[in-house]
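[User] Once you have settled down, look closely at the record that follows, and write a paragraph about the fold.
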Amino acid sequence: MKILLFDSGEVDLYPLSMTRPIGDLRSGILSARERWETLTGIEVLYGVRPMLRARFGFSSFPDEPVLCINARLEPNKIVFQEILNLAPGEAISYGDDLIAWHCERLGSLEEVYGFNGKYARQLSEKMVWLKYPHELFNRCAQRIDFDFELLCLNRKSAALHDSNKLIGDPKKLFIEPGASVLGAVINTNGGPVYIGKDAEVMEGSLIRGPLSLGMGACLKMGAKIYGATSIGRFSKVGGEVSNSVIQDFSNKAHDGFLGNSVLGSWCNLGADTNTSNLKNNYSTVKLWNFREHRFEDSGLVFCGLIMGDHGKTSINTMFNTGTITGVHCNVFGEGFPPKYIPSFSWGGRDDSPAFDREKAAEVARRMYARRNMEFTEEDYAILSALFLQTRQGVE
C-alpha cells in the first residue's frame, strides 16, 4: 500500500502553498508527510496541481492499493485511526469534502478530486482543517504536543550538558543525537522542547516551550524564544521570536522581533527586521485573501508577518501588523511597506518594479549552493510559472 496526500483548497493557504504541497509544510515538529510516514511506516506520495507535479509528483500510479488522505487534516488520534481502519473501497467525508479514501487501484488524480461524496460515510469526529496560513502558528502548540509524543515515546533523550539550566519537567525535553546545547536556559513548564539531530543551541539562549528546533538548525547566541514556536531544518534564528513557524532553510539570524508569524523556506530577514504583531487599538487584524483579492477580517488580535518562499528583507525593515508577502519578494526602503506585497516585488512598495525572473532564479541557485543543494529545472519551472501568473494578475 501507498499513502497519497492530496491537496485541496490550496489557494486559501497562499503564499505558503504556491511553491510546495500542503503536506510539505512543516507544522509542529513534523510536516504532514513526515507525520504519516512516522505513524505508519508507509511511503507517502503527493497529489498536487499540475504546476507542481514535475517537482513533487510521481512518475506512475502504484499498482497496489492507495490510501488517499486530505493533506489539510490537523493531527487527531481518533480521526487518524478511523482513516487507518478504512476497508478497501471505503471512504470518509466531512460535509462535502473528501477526507480519506482507501482506493484499491488509482488511475489518475482526477479520480480523487472528482470523488462522489455520496459513496462516503460521514466522519464521526468533529473535523479541524488547516485552512489559513496563520493557523500554522495558532495551532503550533497542539502539533508540537502530538509530534513530541509520537517521536519520543519509549525513546531516551541525549543527556543535557551541565552548562545548561533546565526549569520544569525533564521528560518534556528531548535532545536528538548529535545536537549541541550549551549554556542555555530551557523552561518546559509551558510545553515540550524538542532539539533535532545535529541542531545547535548556542550559549545564552533562552527557551520557553513548546519549541521544535529542526535537524541541523541553529539558535544563535542570546536568542530569546517564546513558545509555541517551530523552527525548520537547517534554519538559523537569533533575536526575539514568539509563537512563530519558520520553514526549512530560512534565516532570521540577527536581533529583531518576529511574533505570531510564518516564514516560508529560503527566506532571509536582515538585521533588526521587526514585525508588529498587535495593533495599537487592540482591534482584530485584516489579512489579504488571495481567493477574493481583498483584505478580510481574520478575527485575530495577534498576527505579524506571513512570508512566502524566497522572501528577503534589508536591515532595519519594519512590517506592520498582518503583512503578507508573496514568493521571491525583496523588501527594502524607508518606512512600513504595504500590508500586501505581491510575488516578485523588488522593493515591496506600491510602485516597486518586478524582480526579474532570471535574477530571482540566480539568487535561488546561490542560496541552494550554500547548502550544497541544486536548484533544479523543476524548481525553475515553478518559479517561471508563478512569475507569469503574477505579471498577469492571477495571484
Summary: The chain has eight helices and 35 strands. The chain has two domains: 2-122, 135-391. The first strand starts at residue 2 and ends at 6. Residues 377-391 form the longest helix (15 residues).
